[in-house]
Amino acid sequence: MTTFELDRQSLLGLDKIVAGTTDQDLSRPTPCAGWTLADLLRHQVSENHAFAEALRRGEAADWDAGRLGEDAYASYAASVDDFLTAYGEEGALRRQVKIHEIGPFAAEIAAAMHLVDTVVHGWDLAKTFGVAYEPVPEAVTAALGFAAMVPTDPAERAVSGAFGALVEVPEGAAELDRLIALLGRDPGWQLS
């Protein structure tokens, strides 16, 4: 299965979690330090549209332009549709793109970066709502493989601000827990 297909299936799974979002839910805390659900959804809307724009134009003008508007779920769903439409085009994954000023590189790599975001933020969303998270197992494996290339040096992470410090997990931890911990989240995080 292609990286894009794994991402598509993962995004469709997240829709079940996000679809019932109400205005009252937007203030819920998330595992993303300092972010509410509104912040997390706005980030996802921004990223989905920017990844799509980068594919269409070679790079995105603004990686933080997403807005939730009057209906957070509708904004989120529209951004997912934009991403899936762009990356689903014939030959799309052979294009060259810049992601967050990095690149150019093959859009297939961009799709892998987006997959990591999808799987990890899916976990964030599930934890935020206190619901079960059952990502596509192959998507978790692929995301973990790509995320393993993220620098682990705390100083580098502090400069980029994209990931928290590594979280220790027990030997033999599940792939999803290893992925979450690798990107600076505590797999045991619970909504308090």
From TrEMBL:
Domain Mycothiol-dependent maleylpyruvate isomerase metal-binding: 14-126
MF GO annotations: metal ion binding
InterPro entries for the chain: CHP03086 (IPR017520), DinB/YfiT-like (IPR034660), Maleyloyr_isom (IPR017517), MDMPI_metal-binding (IPR024344)
Coiled coil: none
NCBIfam families listed in its UniProt record: maleylpyruvate isomerase family mycothiol-dependent enzyme, TIGR03086 family metal-binding protein
Record's protein name: TIGR03086 family metal-binding protein
